[in-house]
Amino acid sequence: MNSPATFLEEHGEKFFLGVYFVIMVAVAGPLFLTLGEAWIASDVFRPLILSLDPLLSISLEQFSAAVFGIYLGLLLLMTIDPKKRVQGALLWIGTGSALIGLLSIGLFIPNIDFTANVAWLGAGLVGGAVVGGGKQLMEVRTTSALEFRRSASILFYLISAIIVVGLVEFHVNFPQFIDPSGGTVEIIAPEPTVSVAWSGLTTNALMAGVFVVTLRRFVTYDSSENFFVLGPPGSGKSLFLVGKYFAALDDAVDRKSDTPLNPSGDLMELVGRLDAATKSAGWELDSTGATDIEDLQFRFVNGRVFPKNIELSSLDYAGEYLEELPGALMSPESEIDNSTVQLLSERVRAANTLILVIDVERYHNNEPLGIEPYFDILDTADNKDVLLVATKSDILAQQFEDEQALDPHQYFDDFRQYVNDTLVENNQAVRTLVQDTSGSEIHPVYYETTVNDAGERVPMRDRNGNVMTVGFEELLEKLG
């Protein structure tokens, strides 16, 4: 049986979606029923709104239709937003639950002739869409993700304000100071008496708090996360980034996402060389020049229910710079002489998570893994999450298939465990690295390969000449 942590890692989005759904349905009805009763007994807010009729000739029906239209416009934008589509759908359900609660005490829908006030409803709908969407509504193509953040924020503050004002009106009895009846607005000298109705205050405050916190989770856009890949020269960093790009591109196509990946030019050059090769070609990748630095990066959206912007990047370079990185991380940028090391240190500081590469080919050939600098980097780079990735794991995939008689792709979880056991049990540096990263799991990735006549491992390709990868899609889920 999977542990709770594993279950949440694999099904966390669906689980929390279910929790939020239950909260929205369970809380919205009784909460807005209470707010409806607060409206009926209102001492302040209702008289102020009723005063709009004699002062500005705006009736209560017209005002209610306009505000409801604004709400619908904001909610419509949230539903259009790919990153908030599911949350928007749940808010529609919560809205329906709230309207049913108000309907049960004869409020809102029974009191508004929407046919007669369709112009006010439409004006509010357009106004909410314009205010919440702004110039993004007019943009056909953009290099940034389609997000209506402002509409979500306004929607949150609008609903929160209604809840707070309603609860105050429900539990606090204010003296009347304005009388809009009789076609005029009369100011009344208020009596200096305020009383509090304590009955049900705790329950209502708890429902309101749960609803507002859940609503905040709905409208908040998860901040972007930055992943930076570190590894010794020749450890497969470039091919790892290319493989991750392929996986992210496939995922974007599957979900019909219109969020651009924004790959760097250097990354697309690698993709082009690898992708344009013939079916019988090798890697078709040249080694990085002694003075060249290739900036490999792209962005993608991870998660389907609660999407998050992810940036994945690395620097490909010739030469040993990892050993100099710990010292650079502890030094001011002005004191770092080497421009490559300075750029490396900047990227490491900016990253939320470091992806540390373990070269399985080096392990298989009994060569030094070159991961010793990782320990000093982790000591100097504070507050960083860590992911361990085993590149070129096709070598261990062949061993796994020979020993277990299982397809490593089809039985990937078993293969991942096999890779972890093999590397940890047979290499003390890897064992220590896993221990120092709180028992981090090593994630194997590889291109399916075959051995050519020269004894070199070259990528297997499908009939269209495309390389075939394993483990990258599974790792894609880990990056959220």
From TrEMBL:
InterPro entries noted in UniProt: P-loop_NTPase
Q: Does the keyword tRNA processing apply?
A: no
* Top-rank taxon: Archaea
List residues traversing the bilayer. 15-35, 55-77, 89-108, 114-133, 154-174, 194-215
Q: Does the keyword Transmembrane helix apply?
A: yes
Entry keyword set: Membrane, Transmembrane, Transmembrane helix
What is the recorded name of this protein? AAA+ ATPase domain-containing protein
Species the sequence originates in:
Halorubrum ejinorense
